[in-house]
Amino acid sequence: MERTAVPRRLGRLRWSAAEVLDRRAESATAVSFTLDVSDWPGHEAGSHLDLRLTAEDGYSTQRSYSIASAPNGSLVDLTVQRVEDGEVSSYLVDEVRPGDLVEVRGPVGGWFVWRPEQREPVLLVAGGSGLVPLMSMIRARSAADSRAPFRLVYSLRTPADELFGTELRGPPPGVDVWRVFTRSAPTPTRRPAGRLTPEHLVAHGWPVDFEPTVYVCGPTAFTETAGAYLVGLGHPPERIRTERFG
C-alpha cells in the first residue's frame, strides 16, 4: 500500500540497501515483494517504511509503503498496488524483479501497531489496499501463536481486486473475515454490492461492551467515514486507531 510520506522519527533512521528476493502477483494491479535488508532493525505489525529509487542519471524519488509481513529478521514484505499515473508504484509493479536493489528507511510508526501482548478482541476495517498493514497484524498474530480474537471487515470493489485471497480464504483459527464488495459482488451471492454501512460493522464487528481495539486503514474518505460510524455505534474514540493514504 502506498502512503503519503509523513516524516516521523526519520532523523534517527538511515537509508539501507535492500535486495528484492521474490515477487508475487496479488491481483491484476498489485504485487507483493520480499526484500532482504541486511541491517533491518525489526518492525512491529502495522508500521511502514520509506522506499527510494534512484535512476542512473541521479534522479531520485521516494514513497512510503506499509509493511505486509510479520517481523521476520532481515526480511520485509511489501505489497504495492499500481496507482493511476503513479510514477513509483507503476515502476515497482511493472519493472522490478528479483535481484534488483532498492533503498529503504524505517521502520516508521508506533501508534498504528498491534503487539502480541495485547489480549483484547481486535476489529480490523480495511478499505482496498488499506488491508496491507492489517495483514501484517494477522500474520504477526499467527507468528506469536496469539489467541486474541480478530475480526476483519474488508471493503473492496470487486472479487478481482482482492489481496491475499488464498490466505484469507483459509484464515487461522480465531480470525473471522467478512468482505463488503462495493462495485460488483461474486455470483451467485445473497449480498448485493454496496458501500460499507454501520450495519456491516454491527453484524461483523465486536459489540462495544467487548472493548475491542479497532484499526481502520484505507483512503481518506473511507477511513473518516468508517471512523465516524464506529464512534456513532458507541466505540470510544481512544480505542479506534486510523491510518489513511492518498
UniProtKB/TrEMBL annotation:
Residues 13-114 form the FAD-binding FR-type domain. GO terms for molecular function: 2 iron, 2 sulfur cluster binding; oxidoreductase activity. Its cofactor is FAD. Pfam families: FAD_binding_6, NAD_binding_1. PROSITE patterns: FAD_FR (PS51384). It comes from the Bacteria. Keywords: 2Fe-2S, Iron, Iron-sulfur, Metal-binding. Coiled coil: none annotated. This is Oxidoreductase. The lineage of its organism: Bacteria, Bacillati, Actinomycetota, Actinomycetes, Kitasatosporales.
